[in-house]
Amino acid sequence: MYTPTARTTPTRLRERTSHDRAAAHAVLDEAYHCTLGFTVDGEPRLLPTLHVRVGDTLYLHGSTGSRPLLAAREPAGLPICVSVTLLDGLVYARSQFHHSANYRSVVAHGVARLVTDAAEKSAVLTALVEKVGAGRSAESRPPSRKELAETAVLALPLREVSVRARTGGVSEEPADLALPYWAGVVPLRLAPGLPESDAGVTASVPTYLRPPRSPWLDPVPMRGAHVLLEPLDLAHADELFDATDDPEVWRHLGSPRPADATGVRELVAEALAAHHRGGRVPWVQRCAVTGAVIGTTSYYEVDPDRGAVAIGYTFLGRPWWRSAVNTEAKLLLLTRAFEELGARRVVWHTDIRNERSQRAIERLGTTREGVLRMHRQRPDGSWRDTVQYSMIVDEWPEAQRQLRERLRSGAAMA
């Protein structure tokens, strides 16, 4: 516990305030930025900045030319106040007076010092980078001597600290409970969006920027003798366009044939956005011999509760049709579904006009279940009937045996 002081003891709503050390650290660690308060020539100043907590010290990032950093050079240090707030929800009451917010906040007072020790400064800047992504410091260039000279760090010992929070529902006057207005809480949370690669970046989005997911939504790399499956990324778009730039590849697909690599990039972005929403798990297919990108495939309609998943959104460069690549890719995906994820049912959908695709799916050992009429719209605006196939877990052992035998013998491939 932090020792209460006159500055950290509230005058009202005392039940919302605590001096719990663990609670204060939790808020400081979750928040990415804070507000730094100080005075200049007797006037208040507020500065939004980045922070990181290391032990019981709060470090604040700034420029060597900024006013608070210049003032902190003085031997006496710089008196400051730092505040952090996490907004957790909006509270709607029947009366306007009782509208409120759920939140967690920390206020810290003290005298900050300028960090001049090179080792301490380097460690703090590394901690700041690690805060935005564990492992990021190893995957980025460290600051140069010039950049270090232009960067300043303030250190505030955490001694005079208070935590304030509101949780729960609506507080109403008894007389207002009968009013015909909606009341309740709208939760709020800070959630990362889909990472957007900078122009020219060819590296895949790092693991620490991918949200933790159910294993069903994890595009784990898979390797066979003929094909490699790895998580699809925007960096694959150019090669994917080159491999699939053939009207036959796109004849029965749900998207029009891209005119250039930009069109493929848009399709990849759609797949990644669907994965971010939890609706699709996309892989790129590579030739295991050459390493070249040759196509893509996905899980979709992922339903862990029912143990069901669909395989589709597959397009493959024409030179690899009826080769071992597609058969082995399906074998890898089926093995993961049935043996690693515990699926009970795997589904395929294809256009009723696409007889080649239907024969390929049937060669996998599936069962044709029927036709979904006017199921999806084609790129030309017409409505397609979709043929649905499935394989259930009881059929998997024999299907697996036959697929492996087909790969060994070089028989007609899917």
Automatic annotation (TrEMBL):
Keywords: Transferase. One of its GO terms (molecular function) is acyltransferase activity, transferring groups other than amino-acyl groups. It comes from the Bacteria. Transmembrane segments: none annotated. Residues 227-388 form the N-acetyltransferase domain. Pfam families: Acetyltransf_3, Pyridox_ox_2. Gene3D superfamilies: 3.40.630.30, Electron Transport, Fmn-binding Protein, Chain A (2.30.110.10). PANTHER family: BLL6696 PROTEIN, N-ACETYLTRANSFERASE DOMAIN-CONTAINING PROTEIN. This is Protein N-acetyltransferase, RimJ/RimL family. It comes from Micromonospora pallida.
